[in-house]
Design goal:
Order of helices and strands: HEHEHEHEEHEHEHEHHHHH
Structural class: alpha/beta
Largest sheet: 8 strands, mixed
Number of helices: 12
Shape: globular
Distance between the termini: 54 Å
Strand order of the largest sheet: 3-2-1-4-7-6-8-5
Strand content: 5-15%
Radius of gyration: 22 Å
Helix content: 40-55%
Number of strands: 8
Length: 394
């Protein structure tokens, strides 16, 4: 009985810390920290650095025209902005459509080896001091490049993470709704992380790096954006979070498509923990290690397991100790949460919108897929190629 209670409280503390406690501690630490800011000036067009906008793509013919309209609307000086598309194994009309644009460099390889291999190949031909990565299916705000470049005025900044925003429309279901709520929460944590010490990784929808800091990544890497940005942080540079530079993308078409994406990300998270294991050394990396473990490692490893252990542990405890009100109340709350999640799932299958029930449903869905990510990683070992998840506007 004593052992059961110890396991129960260990699981409870880890789960609460991961999803609530770390955010509160982060907020308090940021409030206590004296802010030191580096003056960021717009500068004239002659002083601005040359920038390459790098887009790795596979069979994106349907989005080329919209993406290029978005690129042409960017307010960065046209003579300082190079646009490079790295088309990896595309078999549709992606390359033919890109030939219509005189201001685009297309680096095509007929073999599909995955996004990481494409980026490694493309970076050999890029020599501008700043490289900004984005996805074909995400649209940037007009000032995105300018805002990212301004952040590099600080010589300690090696990577700038833009903000990812999910376009949630009235007709969208649980996939887009849940993803949208998750990214609002995630963006808040990223902003606080950056204010305290450094953002913990960048999202591939929009981020920039100093070209000199790029190092080729293992081709089977699933989260190239996270590995690349964190290895830059590992070298002593800051990942600056810039909410003024943002990328908008549609949510997943449905929960099955969102499952594909979440499982791949979870598998990539587990892979990243192994490849970035030196960052677990708190004595060497200090605050960054604390942020990395709290924000990423726990979510991608033990916390989902502990979350799902709480219910059977709780049941086992009340079966032995039937008089303790706390364990009965907590068991009731757990059962209610799972029932709400199941109800949210049912409503999503019927295309009935309910934002309140999307929260428990998406939360449980997200954690289940972390566990599935382990098996995905075993199957995809040695390959960086994955099946794209369909978006709601596709």
């Amino acid at each position: 009985m004593f052992t059961l209670k110890i396991l129960f409280y260990v699981c409870l503390v880890v789960v609460v810390y991961t999803y609530v406690g770390y955010g509160l501690i982060l907020w308090i630490l940021v409030k206590l920290k004296s802010k030191k800011t580096v003056e960021k000036t717009d500068g004239d067009s002659n002083s601005l650095p040359e920038v390459t906008l790098c887009i790795a793509a596979y069979n994106e013919e349907a989005i080329i025209e919209e993406k290029m309209r978005n690129v042409h609307a960017l307010d960065y000086p046209k003579d300082k902005l190079r646009v490079v598309w790295i088309t990896d194994g595309s078999t549709d009309k992606t390359n033919e459509k890109l030939k219509e644009y005189d201001d685009v460099i297309v680096l095509f390889s007929p073999e599909r080896r995955g996004k990481t291999a494409a980026i490694n190949r493309g970076m050999k031909y890029i020599n501008t001091p700043i490289v900004v990565f984005t996805d074909a299916n995400t649209m940037l705000n007009n000032e995105a490049i300018s805002k990212i470049v301004k952040c590099f005025a600080d010589p300690h900044v090696g990577c700038v993470a833009g903000e990812k925003r999910i376009e949630v429309r009235s007709e969208d279901g649980a996939a887009a709704g849940g993803e949208g709520m998750y990214w609002k929460y995630e963006s808040t944590l990223k902003r606080l992380d950056s204010e305290l010490c450094t953002a913990v990784g960048a999202a591939g929808e929009l981020y920039g790096i100093r070209r000199e800091l790029f190092e080729p990544i293992e081709e089977d890497t699933l989260l190239d954006d996270f590995i690349l940005s964190m290895r830059i942080a590992k070298r002593g540079y800051k990942i600056e979070y810039c909410a003024e530079a943002y990328a908008i993308e549609s949510g997943s078409a449905d929960m099955n498509e969102e499952r594909k994406r979440k499982v791949r990300i979870s598998a990539g998270g587990l892979q990243s923990i192994w490849r970035l294991r030196p960052l677990l050394n708190h004595f060497k990396y200090g605050m960054m290690s604390f942020q990395y473990v709290s924000h990423r490692v726990l979510r991608w490893s033990i916390t989902p397991l502990m979350l799902f252990l709480l219910l059977p542990l709780n049941i086992a405890i009340v079966a032995v100790n039937t008089t303790s009100a706390f364990y009965w109340i907590f068991l009731g709350l757990q059962v209610l949460f799972y029932l709400l999640g199941a109800w949210g799932y049912y409503l999503s299958t019927k295309q009935i919108k309910n934002k309140i029930l999307y929260i428990p449903y998406y939360f449980l869905f997200m954690n289940v897929n972390v566990i599935k990510g382990f098996f995905y990683l075993r199957r995809k070992k040695g390959s960086g190629v994955w099946e794209k998840a369909k978006r709601s506007n596709a």
